[in-house]
Amino acid sequence: MSNRFGALKLGKWGNRALAGAVIALAIVFPLFFGKADGWVDDMTLSLAYVVMALGLNIVVGYAGLLDLGYVAFFAFGAYCTGWFMSGFFANADVHVGVSKFAQVLPGIHLNWLIVVVIAIIVCAVAGIVIGLPTLRLRGDYIAIVTLAFGEIVRVFAINGDEITLPFTNDAKLTAGRQGITPIDPIKLPGLDPFNPLNLRPWYWTALAMVLVVLFVNIRLRDSRLGRAWIAIREDEVAAASMGVPLVKTKLLAYAAGAAFGGISGTFLGSYLNTVNADQFAFSFSIFILAMIILGGLGSVWGVVVGAVALSLINYRLIPDVLNDVPAKLGLNFQLADLSFGIFGFLLVIMMILRPEGLIPERRRQLELREGVGAGTEADLVEVSHT
């Protein structure tokens, strides 16, 4: 399989032509289905998760900082839509850039693009806050701190309906498990608000988000900052000795990754029409992390493939195609009950057969397959005798 992927060397213009063909196919994809078809729904969710996975890839794949609390940034982004695109703060009367129908509704109703900017700022600050305590930590300890951060945010989301915000006339922080709903649909300048019965505009908006985030990811990877992230991932001590500012570089990784998670959160908040505390479970962080591991740590295109593949397995293959297989075998459960067990099994298989991922980053492939950057057993024996 490694040779098969390695044979896909098309050259500079070949790669661009292939990317153009894939993008063109992605643009016309919803035209092959009905406006509210399940495939369009599944692919819209997949594209939203691609944005989130690309954000986590900056933290985990580029900088090598294992983040198990990424769901927190999804929560911040989604709650930005709940606070600023609904009637949650019913005593407020703020309307900016929304439809005529939304202008007469109570609450705060801002245009989605404004909320995206707010979410980027909120999540970037939150990313720096989570990054500060981890600056002196490495490896598993970073994972534990970020996991705790994600759980703290989830607990606040669940119990936020009992927390009164100051200076807001008894407004609550969240609606807990009851959820904030309805959320205003996305309205882009010059267009009518998106209709939940026509999923094509939602899909194209998610695709546009993916293309923008892809461009930013690639530019960041090839920038001086991206090389600093990779240097920290490979050897933090060596990077510091070469003049890489560890604090600034790590915090920028957390902030950039969190911002992408917030963008996706604002889209999902409006698309799903609800912001519920139960959406922000720890398992969601693992779900996004699994997309990166499946596609290839640090690999932009691998993460895209991994995110789409796992999303379709989770939302199409298991519930719609294979869900009744256990019943046909005389077993009293549905396959959807074993979703995370199936994901774990897939990851184990990947670690055994192709640990570098489906489309690996070149550097990681060299390390794992060709031993570049890691001494051979003979070398280690020789060193031990010197």
UniProtKB/TrEMBL annotation:
Transmembrane segment boundaries: 13-33, 45-63, 70-90, 110-132, 139-158, 202-220, 251-272, 284-313, 333-353
InterPro entries, per database record: ABC_transp_permease, LivM-like
CDD domains associated with the record: TM_PBP1_LivM_like
Record's keyword terms, sorted: Cell membrane, Membrane, Transmembrane, Transmembrane helix
UniProt GO cellular component terms: plasma membrane
Compartment(s) of residence: Cell membrane
One Pfam family, short name: BPD_transp_2
GO molecular function (one): branched-chain amino acid transmembrane transporter activity
Location, primary (coarse class): membrane
Mode of membrane association: Multi-pass membrane protein
Domain of life: Bacteria
Protein name: Branched-chain amino acid ABC transporter permease
